Amino acid sequence: MIDKAKLQIGENSYEFPLIVGTENEIAIDIKTLRGVTDGVITIDAGYKNTGACQSAITFLDGEKGILRYRGYSIEELAEKADFLEVAYLLIFGELPSKEELQKFHEDIKENSIVDEDVRKILDAFPKSAHPMGVLSSLTSALTAFNPSNDKINNIDYQRTKKSLYDNIVKVLGKIPVLVSWAYRKKLGLPLEYGDNSLGYVENILKMMFKKPNEDYVPNQVIITALNKLLILHADHEQNCSTSTVRIVGSSHAGLFASISSGISALWGPLHGGANQAVLEMLEAIREDGGDTKKYMAKAKDKNDPFRLMGFGHRVYKNFDPRAKIIKVAAYEVLNDLGIDDPILEIAKSLEKEALNDPYFVDRKLYPNVDFYSGIIYRAMGIPVEMFTVMFALGRLPGWIGHWCEMRLRKEPIGRPRQIYTGETQREFKNISQR
Ligand code: SDX
User: Fold this and answer.
1) Pick from 39, 310, 334, 412: most CB atoms within 10 A?
2) How high does pLDDT run on average in the chain?
3) Residue 71's pLDDT is what?
4) 130, 236, 271, 313: which is the annotated catalytic residue?
5) DSSP one-letter string for 199-220
6) Cβ atoms 387, 309 nearer than 8 A
């Protein structure tokens, strides 16, 4: 069994221990590298080959298209589980008993009131504000209204554990309210509160969609679809936004502030913002006469900044297992709702062409989680600017789980090194001499 890595620099040879995970992934532990080599570091733009931590939450294998939360396959969870029990699993490590889930939901409901003064902050935003910017700002503002002690220390683990639990249920209780407020503010609708008699996912839909002076009529197809979409988005190990939450939390910033940073990272079109960008791309292709070949050529043209949104992935060099599940769900939802959405046909032809095009095949670019999700959100009546907000709602348990894991393991503050490539020392000259 190989248990060491050898590094040769010039005449000198160094050995470093290997870390092997429960799925036989191997890492070289280089924590002593700089010290033993008198300052040599590694560099890896975008951390494509660099592990930031060891984690027990999610396992994915990009080559085989495998995704598991705490050992349970995404296929099983998406088919059989309820989003709140998946949230519990990701955060606490085990699926809850019926009583544990009931208490978790009760605690979340008890912590779902948002301070009325938060409405004043919301009112200060222009209607044109992107809901991801609103959500990130309001999430950070929650700290001001919940000056809770996010101090995770070992002085009194039980008290600390309780305060951590209290913050977890506050996040899961309050952020769906902020999501519905951001949505309703954009439409000029009165801000709704939840209905504690409903399930977690159904309540989110009611808060968002209940029309003034009308009874809210639940649609089981939409509830089932949203439950599945939230589960599929719940975690994805060290993606850009989760790594952001971990590094912000590593400075001992609170849970709300850390999650606010994750929302901002998710907003980018290369990450969670891709689901909005996919819909805008499909709409543009439709308006351009549905000429998918023209857009395929643009995506392959190095001089054209256009990329085929919803395609490619940092880790998956096979089909994103979530994309497969969402594609089937998209058909089901459109069929059940009796919707004939022309952009679904455009998406299908893009996918078919890309899967047979050497440019995409050679680079192992497959549809990712964002390629079909927007089609379902649109069928549910969710406006395109809210798509990434729905992604954030799903990713909350993953962000919380990773934040807790990092803090409870007392991981050090994240502080990468760099290689300086600027000017060497030079003398200051007075302006008259320049
Ligand atoms: C998510 O990490 C996660 O887990 C994220 C996520 C999660 O659950 O948290 O899965 C969610 O963010 C999914 C990804 C959503 N983003 C998009 O759909 C945006 C479009 N995709 C690309 O921007 C890109 O594929 C990335 C950003 C997703 C991945 O980029 P990488 O890993 O940095 O790969 P790369 O940019 O180095 O690309 C490798 C090659 C390049 O060509 P060459 O230089 O080799 O000639 O593939 C090309 C790229 O130009 N390429 C694409 C492409 N994606 C990559 N060419 C056209 N269209 C694309 N979409």
Assistant:
1) 310
2) 94
3) 98
4) 313
5) -HHHHHHHHHHPPTTS-----H
6) no
Determine whether the shortest distance from the Cβ of 274 to ligand 1 is under 6 A. Answer: yes
- Best residue among 232, 324, 361, 368 to mutate for probing ligand 1, ranked by most atoms within 8 Å of CB: 368
Q: Which of 272, 274, 276 is nearest to 241 (CA)?
A: 272
> Cβ distance 305 to 281 under 8 Å?
no
β-pairing, 72-73 vs 66-69, is antiparallel
Neighbours of 197 (CB within 10 A): 8
Q: Are the beta carbons of 236 and 58 closer than 8 angstroms? A: yes
363 lines ligand 1 (CB under 6 A): yes
| Mutate-to-test residue for ligand 1 from 55, 237, 311, highest number of ligand atoms within 8 A of CB | 311
Q: What is the pLDDT of residues 344-381, one digit of tens each?
A: 899 999 999 999 999 999 999 999 999 999 999 999 99
Taking only the tens place, the pLDDT of each residue in 207-239 is 999 999 998 999 999 999 999 999 999 999 999
For ligand 1, whether the C-beta of 137 sits within 6 Å is no
Dist. CA 72–CA 65, nearest whole Å: 14
Distance 272 CA to ligand 1 centre (A): 12
Q: Could you tell me if 318 and 64 are in contact, meaning their C-beta atoms sit under 8 angstroms apart? A: yes
Cα(353) to ligand 1 centroid in Å equals 18
- pLDDT category of residue 163 using cuts at 50, 70 and 90: confident
Which of 235, 320, 357, 370 is catalytic? The answer is: 370
DSSP 3-state of 58: strand
C-alpha 45 to ligand 1 mean position (Å): 14
- Say what the pLDDT of residue 47 is: 97
pLDDT at residue 150 in the model = 61
Q: Note if 313 is an active site residue.
A: yes
> Strand 12-20 relative to strand 4-9: parallel, antiparallel, unpaired?
antiparallel
Cα–ligand 1 centroid distance for 132 (angstroms): 21
370 is catalytic: yes
Identify any residues that bridge with 59 across adjacent strands, giving them in sequence order.
68
Return the ligand 1 atom nearest residue 310 CA. 18
Domains defined along the chain, listed by start:
4-61 (2.20.28), 73-266+386-408 (1.10.580.10), 274-380 (1.10.230.10)
Tokens linked to 97:
């008993």
Average pLDDT over residues 38-59: 97
CA dihedral of 171, 174, 175, 179, whole degrees rounded to 10? 180
Predicted model pTM: 0.95
